[in-house]
Design goal:
- The chain is mostly helical.
- It has a domain of about 50 residues.
- Helix content is about 75%, strand content about 5%.
- The chain contains eleven helices and two strands; from the N terminus they run ααββααααααααα.
- The protein has a two-stranded antiparallel ribbon.
- Strand 1 and strand 2 form a beta hairpin.
- Helix 4 runs antiparallel to helix 5 and helix 8 packs antiparallel against helix 9.
- It starts with 10 loop residues before the first helix and ends with a helix.
Amino acid sequence: MNDRQLKENGPELELSRRVHALRLGWLGTLGLYGLFFALVQLVFYLYAGLLGGPGVYYRGESGLAVAAWAWWVSFLVPVLVCLVFLRGQDARNRGLLTRTWDSWRWFDHGVLMFDTDLEFTGNQEESFARAANLDPDDPYALNNLGSVYLQQGRVEEAAAAYRKAVRLNPGYHKAYANLGVAYARLGEIKRAVGFYRKALKLEPKDPATHLNLGAALAGQGKNTQAAAHLREFLRLAPDHPRKEEISGLLRRLV
């Protein structure tokens, strides 16, 4: 199963979410300033109060006071440090968001190739691979890249892409379902069944996974369980092109 939803439908919202997650914010900036202010004051205290440095602290009418120039240093040095830090953070965030935006463009480019002559070709592979390389934390690009690999017969590479996708998003049912398909093609039916079950736990109304799980269980001789999933497939997808074929298999099982 592929993700065919274009990311052009609301990328500004996702960008805003990522900026909010990355930006330090006013409270964070204030805290950073206070930290550096305290550090500079501590340096003055240690230098004058403990090490006997000249001219920083002096005895005032109300006790120990600090020279005016030391206060200016205490205020201005943290300002400069905060400005340098925030400029560096902004540059890093702009780079990250630019890569994210470019990743989405390549993802959409690959999605638009579905149901065309370019589906599962090297062109579509390149699109999803570029998307995944630009944004390594995007499980959807990895899932679609895995599906391209799977259709090309590169099952091990497909399984690796699906495994990374579920690590990035443990609630991503499509990647679990596809990982089950990959392991089924590798002959590891027991592992395939486990991933199908995981996918259905996350999305119980996925007809394709019910079909795949039913077929896998039938291959293990677990006819009663297989029949239950095949019935659910027919209920969820009554107009599926393979309806008659699956109905015949169901009759044989029961």
